[in-house]
Amino acid sequence: MATTQRLTDRKREAIIRAAIAEFRSNGFETTSMDKIAARAEVSKRTVYNHFPGKEELFAEILTQLWQTSADQMALSYRADRPLREQLYELMQSKMRMLSDNNFLDLARVAIAATIHSPERTQDMVARMNQREEGVNVWISAAQADGKLKPVDPAFAAHQLQSLLKTFAFWPQVTMDQPPLSEAMQQQVLDSAVDMFLGYYQVAAKR
After folding, report:
1. Number of domains observed in the structure of the chain
2. 80 shares its domain with 179
3. Are 47 and 145 within one domain?
């Protein structure tokens, strides 16, 4: 039983690796389950046994990319730690993900697929957005502790993450610019965190 399970897992991983290569090389629309099966050296039926369609397969790939930093992105708020230190750590995890070349390549594919056929990729985009909820949770906890001003956590989280994406995502995805240098990453992180806290942090009582 264990051997069969390992074989199934290996086939699934082979399918995902093959799909990544196909999506990166040919884009979302041109890639087919037949091509993925051929590259993975498995039958088309095997591919469909694991994934109902290429939308679900592509969403799974993006989910796995998010998972590489999921633990950090789900950083729990702690009242005994400095607010800025926690927020910087949370955004540093986000920056690592945005600087990953595989993630950037597949993000280009995802955006192109959404523009071409938004109705077919709504579920895929929804699953992508779920991976950003860790920041919302952290902000909510900080508000409950009286450290941040009351505002819609999703709105505030979107503002904060947009400060990073302006430098470390959109230029790379839309204009093919290289990932930021470490020095520039730190500059963007410092300024984003300070701007956010400068507006939303509740002043300490004297």
Report:
1. 2
2. yes
3. no
pLDDT (tens digit, 0 to 9) for every residue of the chain, 206 residues total? 556 668 888 999 999 989 988 988 888 888 999 999 999 999 999 999 999 998 888 878 877 766 654 554 567 899 999 999 999 999 998 898 888 887 787 777 777 777 766 665 566 556 555 555 788 999 999 999 999 999 999 999 999 999 999 999 999 988 889 889 999 999 999 999 999 999 999 997 76
Tell me if 155 is assigned to some domain: yes
HSE on the CB side for 156, CA within 13 Å?
Answer: 25
141 and 41, same structural domain?
Answer: no
Sign of CA dihedral 182, 187, 190, 191: negative
Its domain, for residue 79, covers 63-200
| One-letter amino acid of 22 | E
pTM (2 decimals)? Answer: 0.74
With respect to residue 161, please indicate whether it lies within any of the assigned structural domains.
yes
Dist. CA 30–CA 32, nearest whole Å: 6
